[in-house]
Amino acid sequence: MATQIGWYGLGSMGLAMATNLQRHLSSTQALSLLYSNRTLSRGDSLQQLGAVPQSNFKDLVSRSNIIFTMVSNDAVLESLINTAIESPGTSIASKIFIDCSTVHPQTITSISSRLSSKSASFLCAPVFGGNPVATAGKLVFALAGSTPEVRHNIIKPLIQDVMGRKVIDCGEDPAKSSLLKIAGNIVTVSLMETVGEAQVFAEKTGLGTEAMEELINEAFGPIAGGYSKRLTTGAYAPELNTRPGFGVSLAIKDANHALSIAQDKGVELPSVELARDNMASARDYAGECLDSSSMYGILRQKAGLAFWNEKSRQGGGK
Ligand SMILES: NC(=O)c1ccc[n+]([C@@H]2O[C@H](COP(=O)([O-])OP(=O)(O)OC[C@H]3O[C@@H](n4cnc5c(N)ncnc54)[C@H](OP(=O)(O)O)[C@@H]3O)[C@@H](O)[C@H]2O)c1
């Protein structure tokens, strides 16, 4: 029987990833992707590529053998898994669930054991890289869970050179890839904070943000350069009713996961704490429609500048 793949979650990352997966399935004459999302119309462009909408997660699961999820946070993922496990009359035995969201390792362990008690498999495959990297199919995946055969022969071919440029195999414990993702975000949020500080310094000293950005790109690489661009293009505070590249609340969640694990293990993460507090202050000041790099607005305010720069939106959001 041909394998049917399902996808739930069409946010900033999920839509780009599912689009690449559908293109791959179509080019290999495989069955078209089934998809669903809370806001189903987000999938209109996917449908034009041949993917098939499903009105809810329960239907998606019942018609798929492999189900990808890419959603905001732990609570959303847990409620989806509850739906799958508790739907009367739907067996999930031998289905493979694979989550790409960033969630706490404890959530992953609990979901994995609940699914395995129903004879389903679970893999955790969080990703590194933002929306432009997802669109280019160049994400880095950390992959863990199930058996080496399932990871290498069934799941990896759906990822490598389809949605991602690299798959880091983290073994059979799915919590391991989640932990690697949280650890990676220590670097992400700290680097955003540092780039923000450097750009405020450049502006206040008269050096200029353009020269600073050129240097950041050349000397510290495209990732740091990309974070600088989010500031200089105003993407840190996008127009209201647009979807930020990496929403501020998602990054606060990630920082809090890192801080809670660090606290358990007696590790201090002062730069993560600072970045988290500045992101939370930005959200208090300007609302939800902010990118994770919006700690920059708070750093600007602390230096006597407006929260907004000439390219960002100019207010509102509360
Ligand atoms: N953005 C990045 O740069 C990035 C990079 C790496 C990892 N991540 C992680 O990847 C995950 C997805 O990020 P994203 O940027 O794609 O997030 P996003 O744009 O905010 O999309 C979130 C997705 O979750 C769905 N969702 C939210 N609340 C829901 C609810 N109560 N019930 C059902 N569905 C719900 C949304 O549905 P609607 O479309 O209906 O809102 C959407 O499909 C997060 O865990 C994030 O931390 C993000």
Automatic annotation (TrEMBL):
Note one Pfam family from the annotation: NAD_binding_2
Instruction: Write the record's keywords in alphabetical order, separated by commas.
Output: NAD, Oxidoreductase
Query: Where is the 3-hydroxyisobutyrate dehydrogenase-like NAD-binding domain positioned along the sequence?
Result: 179-297
Query: Which InterPro entries does the entry mention?
Result: 6-PGluconate_DH-like_C_sf, 6PGD_dom2, 6PGDH_NADP-bd, HIBADH-like_NADP-bd, HIBADH-related, HIBADH-related_NP60_sf, NAD(P)-bd_dom_sf
Q: Which residues form the active site?
A: 181
Gene Ontology MF terms in the entry: NAD binding; NADP binding; oxidoreductase activity
Where does the source fall among the domains of life? Eukaryota
Q: Keyword NAD: yes or no?
A: yes
Q: Does the keyword Oxidoreductase apply?
A: yes
Q: Which part of the chain is the 6-phosphogluconate dehydrogenase NADP-binding domain? A: 4-168
Write out the similarity annotation. Belongs to the HIBADH-related family. NP60 subfamily.
Q: What is the designated name of this protein?
A: 6-phosphogluconate dehydrogenase family protein
Species assigned in the record: Talaromyces stipitatus (strain ATCC 10500 / CBS 375.48 / QM 6759 / NRRL 1006)
